[in-house]
Amino acid sequence: MKRLWRLLLWLFNRRFFGEFWLLWGNKLSNNFRQRNDGELTLRRRMDDQLCLERHGYKVFSQNDEDGIIAEIFSRIGVTNKVFVEFGVQNGLECNTHFLLHKGWNGLWIEGDAKSCASIRKLFSVPIESGRLKVVNAFIDKDNINGIIGGGGVNGEIDLLSIDIDGNDYWVWEAISCIQPRVVVIEYNAKFPPDFEWVMEYNKNHIWNGNDKHGASLKSLELLGQKSGYQLVGTNLNGVNAFFVKQDATGNLFAQPATAENLYNPQRWNIQYISGHPATEYVGT
Question: How far apart are CA 37 and CA 260, in angstroms?
């Protein structure tokens, strides 16, 4: 009798829970597929030699920008190895720190006086040798050319990196004193790749951690086109977009060169760690 009861109970559980999990399993599977189309796209890009995501790594950048920047220049070559970057904080984690180790020269612009004081202490070696200049200034679209020119940089340079958490779009549009071959600029990945959005200009804007900052990738793509640049990729966790002068791109990068094709969503779960943390410049 006990065996018969156990058999009936087993059959009931198998039928009831089997149908339950079949129903909910299909529902969860459909939801999973809808949410992860971007991951399928990413897998495809990882297999494409022309896509930049597979080449990313961190040395001193916030995320994987160091590797992507290196890959871009391995394709288009370098000229004078000069950079300009603004929004570097104390310089230890930024897009051009590693370039100093590679023998580049450049200009950092930072609006916070304490951060600039830290830079001058932590990066005394390249500053004293004349390879790095530091300017303490709060940037807006009206003063940016004067600040860069006052820092001794003009004409063609290899890299411009923009990270001011607000008026990035407007400042890039205003720059005319330099002609960077490569531009790295943050985009607001909250907005889908086909959507145009730009934060209204406010010269006194300071980011407070909300979603009111920068511009969507599509808007930056269109600004780049107007300025003679091609969108060539974005980094894995959806923070920075990479642009190259159109006359240098050839067939070296993924096509089509659109936000729809090259967008990455914000992936907050990805954290980049590169050995022990930097506490000072350790190069020569």
Answer: 13
